[in-house]
Amino acid sequence: MKNSLGLIVFFFFFQLGNAQSLLDVLTSQQIDTTAVTLSFKGTRIGLGHSIETRDRNTFELSIGQRYWNTPNEESSGFLVDQICTTFALDYAFTDNLTAGSSISTLMTAANVFGKYRLKRQRNNDKLPLSFTFVQTVNYKSEFFDITTTRGSFGEKLAYTSQLLVAHKWDDKFTAQLSPTFIHRGSNRFEVDPTNQFAIGVSGRYKLSSHVELFSEYFYQINPLESIKTFDAFSLGANWEVSDLLLQFMLTNSRPYSEDLFITNNQLEFNVRNRNMTFGFRATYTFQL
Amino acid sequence: MIKYSILFILLLLNSTQDDRLKKQFITKQGQVTFFSYTTVENIQASNNTVYSIVDVETNEIAVSILMKAFEFKKSLMQSHFNESYIESDLHPKATFTGKIIDYDKNFDGIQTRIIKGDFTMRGISKSVEIKAQISKIDNNITISGETQLMVEDYKINIPPILRPNIADNIKVSFNLIHSLNEK
Known about the structure:
The complex is a heterodimer.
Chain A: H1 2-18, H2 22-29, E1 58-68, E2 82-92, E3 97-104, E4 109-119, E5 130-140, E6 157-168, E7 173-184, E8 195-206, E9 211-220, E10 232-241, E11 244-251, H3 258-263, E12 277-287
Antiparallel strand pairs in A: 1-2, 1-12, 2-3, 3-4, 4-5, 5-6, 6-7, 7-8, 8-9, 9-10, 10-11, 11-12
Chain B: H1 2-22, E1 24-37, E2 42-55, E3 60-66, E4 71-72, H2 75-85, E5 93-100, E6 110-121, E7 124-137, E8 140-150, E9 169-180
Antiparallel strand pairs in B: 1-2, 1-9, 2-3, 2-4, 3-5, 5-6, 6-7, 7-8, 8-9
């Protein structure tokens, strides 16, 4: 009798199951496995690259400037005593492959990079992570000092390899880890390591559909020996105005290329003059 | 005796389950396309993976549309659509549930019928009436037609600077070819 009662209860629930609406039938079968999009608004978070690449045939043209005061008495006090400027052009050859180049004034550097999306995070993904690999080559034309110059072309180059790993939690929050390896063709002092390792930690929080806050921190595992360096940090906001992305940030890092801003940063992050740097970047995106 | 009667009920239920399935027609590759025509810009996007199910016994229909599956000519537009306007991370699907009014399941040609129901997008439900052509050929039920949606009904936030680029009235056309639900 007990068994029969159990069966009746079972049938009751079985029938309930049958009574599900048509929409429930669809929902149970339609599983969203689309790729997670726009983990970050831009292809750069602030200082460094984000996992994002643009889709095929997209150009990104950007102008970036960083401003800071000198600690001298004759300082203007408006964070515009000195300036570093960069111009950059990126092109997406495929949805996964982007290449770009830039020039910047500080330490007179020219930079080329290739960026490849290894994996996109998907909805209902077993491994809900995005992976992107970035390889940059940076050329520094400046002298070491007045008497010593860099020798061959190879000595003026520095290579940065980064594996970017990101997870988008929800529509607002994304975090990224950026293990970084830097190799320099030459060093100013022999005590300095030619190969350096660092780990970047970055995150963004979307305030509205057009504005996000971001922060980045690059921890140096084996810093330079000859000078005291500080880990690069940034705090800022990205504002998307249709096809134009405006970035505003406070940072302690001035150069634009990875090998310089991660390892060669001699300023601590604080609001004192000389240290406090204001960064601005405007990126215009257009698709052919 | 009780055991036998329960077994009988079980068989009966099983057969009703089969009957129910025989009356349901489903598609997982339905097409929905929308158009926005303005003097500044024409925008068009298509989705070819729309899920739809029709029950010819009750004349009920349900449609589920994954918003991220809309493909635009320019992927930049697609990003803006998902990120800024539809907010696909928050509202991944648009759904429709309704009833085909006066549908004759035994008629083999094309019938033009009104489908009455609720369309839900971005968490906002509006009751709509859509005129559709319904045909039954080779045990496939095809439902096609077009309708219009008002942007402001679904509280889609368009920045003033882009207002001229997007029509107030979005034309939506659909073509859903259902076959017998075998699951």
